Amino acid sequence: MLSNNFLWLLAGILLTLGVIWLWGRVKRWSHRRRYGDEMSQAEMLIGYSQRMVSLIQDRPGLSQLLTVDVPAALEVAQADILFAEARALVSTKERGLRLPIHNAAVRRVAAGGAAARVTGPLAELIEQGRTDLSWTAVWAPVMRGTELYGLWLLGQRGQRRAYSALHLQWLTTLARQAAVVLETVRYAEREQHVAQKLQALYYQTVSAREMERGQLSRELHDGVLQDLCAVSRDLKALGQPHLETLVTRSDEAVNVLRRICHDLRPPFLTNNLPLTLETLVERMDAYASAPVSIEIKADALSLPEETTLAIYRIVQEALNNAIRHADASEIVVRLTQYPDRLRLTITDDGQGIEHSHDLGRYVDQGHFGLAGMHERAKMIGANLDIQSAKDYGTAVILEVPDL
User: 55 vs 58, 85, 100, 180, 298, CA distance in Å?
Assistant: First the structure.
C-alpha cells in the first residue's frame, strides 16, 4: 500500500514537472513568435557602444547607425532620427519634417526619458496632423540630463513581432549613448564655427593689410620718393663740395625709401615670382652676416596673385627669422617646380628653433611670425612644415599643390 502511494506521488511530481516544462516551452515559443529570438543585451550594447565611440564628431555615421544598422538587427523596415536644431527637431530622412521642441506633446515625450511604445503624447502629436509619422511604433528621446538632442523613431517590426521590455531597455541605453556623442559633436561644431570665424577674420585682416601696404607703397613711391630724388638731383647739380655729405645722405635716404617700398609691395610680384624672390634674396644677402643664396628650378609660373603674395611673405618672414635669430653660416632658398606641386624650402645651419611645433607657446609670448606663416599657407591651400632641432638648423618647407 505504501509502495502504491509512493508511486502515485512520484507520478504526480513527474506530471507536475512535465506540465511546468511544457508550459515553459510553450511560453518561450509564444515569446519567440511575438518578439523574435532573444538578443543578448550585453553583447548588442557592447558592439554598438564601441561603434558609437568611433563616431565622435560624425553625425552622418551616427544617423546611419540609428536609422539603418540597429533597425536591421530588430527587423525594423523604417526608422528616423530627428536632430535638435535651433528650436525644432529636424528629420534626417523626410525633407521638411520638423517638430517644434517646445510643443507640449514633445515635452511630455522627452519627460519620460526612456524608449516606449507609441501611446499617449506622441500618438497625440501624430493625430495633430503629423500623418507622416503614422508609421512610428516606438520612440526614444535622445537626451543627456534635461537636454534634448533628438528623437529616435522606429517603425513596426517584421513578421508582426512586437518590441519586448528588453528591446526598450537597450534602445533607451543606446539613445542615451547617442546623446553623449551628439553633445560632443555639438561642442566640436561650436569650436569649429568659432575657429572658422577667427580664420575668416584673420584673412580679412591680412587682405586689408596687404591693400594698405600696396597703397602706402604707391604713395611713398609716387610722392615722397620722387621728391627726394628731385632734391638729390638738385644738390648734385649745384656741384658744391660742401654739399657732398648732404648729397650722400640724400642718396642713402632714397635707397632706404626704395627698400621700404619694395618690402611693402614687390614690383614684380604679380607676374614673376622667381625674379621677385631673387631680388629679395639679393637685398637680404647685402646686409646679412651669413651668405643668403637662392636656387630656382622652375619654368614660367602662372599663379594667382594671392598665392604669389603668400609665398613671398612666407619666404620674407623665414629669411628675417634666420638672419636675426639662427646665427647661421649659410642660408639657402630653393624653389622647385614639380608636375603636381611647387616646393619651396628655406634652410639654415644655425642653432635651430626650440618647440617649433608648439605655435601656442610663441603666440603667448607675443611672437606671431611662425603662426602667421602657417595661416598664410592655409589661405592658399598649401602645406607648411617647419623642421628644426637645437644646433642642427631649421628647414621651412612649403608645398603648394595642384599647379
Answer: 5, 19, 27, 11, 45
- Higher per-residue confidence, 118 vs 63: 63
Do residues 99 and 141 make contact, with C-beta atoms less than 8 angstroms apart? no
The H or E element that residue 112 is part of is helix 104-112
Query: Exposed/middle/buried for 96, CB within 10 Å: 0-12, 13-18, 19+?
Result: exposed
Residue 155 grid cell:
517603425
> CATH homologous superfamily of domain 41-185?
GAF domain (3.30.450.40)
Give CATH 3.30.450.40 domain extents, the chain: 41-185
Q: Which long-range contacts (CB under 8 A, 24 or more apart) does 58-62 make?
A: 58/185, 59/83, 59/182, 59/185, 62/178, 62/181, 62/182, 62/185
Are 107 and 122 in contact by the 8 Å Cβ rule? The answer is no
Count other Cβ atoms within 10 Å, centred on residue 177.
19
Q: What is the pLDDT of residues 121-143, one digit of tens each?
A: 566 665 554 556 778 888 888 98
Contact indicator for 165, 341 with CB cutoff of 8 Å: no
Domain 266-401 listed as CATH 3.30.565.10: yes
Instruction: State the span(s) of the chain assigned CATH 3.30.565.10.
Output: 266-401
pLDDT digits (tens, 9 = 90+) for 243-296: 777 778 877 777 777 777 667 767 656 668 888 899 889 888 988 889 999 999
Q: Rounded distance, CA 142 to CA 164, Å?
A: 20
Q: Specify the pairing of strand 116-117 against strand 136-144.
A: antiparallel
400/403 Cα distance (integer angstroms): 7
Would you report the helix, strand and coil content of the chain in percent, each value rounded to 5?
A: 60, 20, 25
Neighbouring CB atoms inside 10 A of 274's CB total 17
Pairing between β-strand 292-297 and β-strand 331-337 as defined by DSSP bridges? parallel
